[in-house]
Specification:
Distance between the termini: 41 Å
Strand content: 5-15%
Pfam families: DAGAT (PF03982)
Order of helices and strands: HHHHHEEHHEHEHEHEHEEHEEHE
Helix content: 25-40%
Radius of gyration: 20 Å
GO biological process, one term: diacylglycerol biosynthetic process
Strand order of the largest sheet: 1-10-7-2-5-3-4
Protein name: Acyltransferase
EC number: 2.3.1.-
Largest sheet: 7 strands, mixed
Main location: endoplasmic reticulum
């Protein structure tokens, strides 16, 4: 039996890099373990002398229940924490602007690809680390997240602080209904199913049948903006799960039941480079494309919806082709729509 050699990190790593690793480690934990931990603490407190904390939180939760569906409760202090700068520099992550977005309009930004943990979407649109406010002055971004996560006590407040809102129709539409513009709803269009396709070197976008976000933009007259995040699929390796395998079948069944996908991903560790759940230090360049003007149409015909959907796919392909060689993608590589 061959023993796997573990490549340990050297002891003399600069403090800056250690802080970067710590920032990403807490972010990974918040995705994987923080929600279950918050649920455990909530129920555990009920059986201790601190039971009143959970009781009072439940009462407050009752009155605050609709807050996620009404734009959440972004806290600028949380979005601007130094910790997010360290997370940005770990990869690093860069936000690339290709055109102005007029703050007098509202926008629907389609983010592609989802990747395993949408690192680029979080860093660019939930924190101030990559300069979204400076690049697109007057715009406030709202990243959509599965409604399931907003049912976790305590955790729901943490994610709302960063501008996350539920991905159901009512919650996603709330910022777009505000008159005067200045709101940008960011949707990882491929969602949880696309995470199962997030293998390094692949450029498959789950979009062919995804038309809900197109219709939402039409109903509210919000301009569409394609966004492609180069490097998003390079952060983790994933256990081979081609369609037709028992693993893929199991993952898809669990996704249909739970609403979340369970990619079996791995990369490096905190103190060694051989295995673990920490992402690789690989650059992410999130390119925000040109806006597609959309006229308000509360009851679009099927033909109108299909035409705008095709235009969006064409613009996304064009965005990919214009920038791929700048970020290490071979010029012959094509973006595949699934």
């Amino acid at each position: 039996m061959n023993n796997m050699k573990v490549d340990f990190a050297p002891l003399e790593i600069p403090l800056q890099r250690r802080l970067q690793t710590a920032a990403v480690a807490q972010w990974i934990f918040s995705f994987i373990g923080l929600a279950p931990l918050c649920i455990f603490i909530f129920f555990y407190l009920l059986f201790t002398r601190f039971w009143l904390i959970s009781v009072l939180y439940t009462v407050w939760w009752f009155y605050d229940y609709d807050t996620p569906a009404r734009g959440g409760q972004r806290v600028p202090f949380v979005c601007g924490l130094k910790m997010w700068d360290y997370m940005r520099d770990y990869f690093p992550i860069k936000l690339v602007k290709t055109a102005d977005l007029d703050p007098r309009h509202n926008y629907v930004l389609g983010f592609h690809p989802h990747g395993v943990l949408v690192a680029g979407a979080f860093a660019n649109f939930c924190t101030y680390a990559t300069g979204f406010r400076e690049l697109f002055p007057g715009l406030t971004s709202y990243l959509l997240m599965l409604p399931l996560w907003f049912r976790s006590p305590f955790f729901r407040n943490y994610i709302m602080c960063a501008g996350l809102i539920p991905s159901d129709k009512e919650s996603a539409s709330y910022p777009l209904r505000k008159r005067g513009g200045g709101n940008a709803v960011v949707i990882a269009v491929g969602g949880a199913p696309e995470a199962l396709n997030a293998h390094p070197g692949t450029y498959n976008v789950l979009l062919t049948q995804k038309k809900g976000f197109i219709k939402m933009a039409m109903v509210h007259g919000a301009h569409l903006v394609p966004v492609f995040s180069f490097g998003e699929n390079e952060l983790f390796d994933q256990v081979e799960n081609k369609r037709g395998t028992w693993l893929r079948w199991t993952q898809e069944r669990l996704q249909s039941i739970m609403g979340i996908s369970l990619p079996l991903f791995h990369a490096r560790g905190i103190f060694q480079y051989s295995f673990g759940l920490m992402p690789y230090r690989r650059p992410i360049h999130t390119v925000v494309g040109r806006p597609i003007q959309v006229q308000r149409n509360e009851k679009p015909a099927t033909e109108e919806l299909d035409a705008l959907h095709q235009l969006y796919m064409d613009e996304l392909s064009k965005l990919f082709d214009e920038h791929k060689e700048n970020y290490g993608v071979d010029k012959d590589t094509q973006l595949n729509f699934v």
